[in-house]
Write a structure and sequence with these properties.
The structure is a single chain. This protein is an alpha+beta fold and 258 residues long. It is built from 4 helices and 6 strands; from the N terminus they run ααααββββββ. The chain has helices spanning 6-41, 53-78, 88-107, 146-156; strands at 166-174, 183-191, 199-206, 218-228, 237-247, 255-257. A hairpin with an 8-residue loop joins strand 1 (166-174) and strand 2 (183-191). Helix 1 (6-41) runs antiparallel to helix 2. The longest helix is centred in the first third of the chain and has 36 residues, at 6-41. It is elongated. Mean pLDDT is 79; it is low at 6-14 and 85-90.
Amino acid sequence: MEIRDYSQQANIGIKQNNWQNWLKSAVLLGTGLYMLVLLLTGNIGHYVNVANPSILWLSWLTVPLLLSLGGWSLWRTLKPAPPSATPANQSRLTTTALVICTLPLILGLLPSRPLGADAINGGVNIAPLGLTSGTSVNIAPEDRTVLDWLREFGRLGDPTVLNGETVDVIGFVYREPNMAENQFMVARFTMSCCVADAYAIGLPVIYEGAPDLAEGSWVHIQGTLQVGTFRPGDDPLPIITPTLVEPTDEPDSAYLYS
């Protein structure tokens, strides 16, 4: 008759679980502290739409939840437990889950920064945008952002109505390979919920000093709108003719929230 040493098997199970429990506690506590730092510094806006009260409230709620779960996990890890064996397949599953959960925390060690020109993969949207529910169009022209102007184009339908309108916007410089030397877009990323749904929007600019502007650099532009064709095959749309183009710092809120 085969005699199994169940105590030895139990000890192996405890050792397998021990490092996993420590890692789980570290991941939960570390993620909670990292989110707290993001919220206190305002850098949480690089990842979620802070203009949405519900999203901001949920972000704050996540911090005590993660810290509580991490503290409870740490307490269980430190508390002596009776020997119990752990199936190998459960151990492998737990290890995989912990590795996946650790990746965001590791990425959090990198400097927090918003998306810029180097993150644009599918081009910049310069087409008119529809209005979302609750969006007001009663914004003075000099106070409109890139997003506000695209919404205004969509609301009016006839872009020629905007000929001669005064523009005062901030964005980063973006170029496409087929653009003329005097063309670029003043672009911003817009976000609805989180960085996963962010996409780039922009206003076309024709400016003789465009070659001197570095790709991705932030600029403050003042000028007027004039309807014309910016890219071959595009419908006529308002194009900025600048009277002022000057370098500027990246705004505190680099995203435009929709």
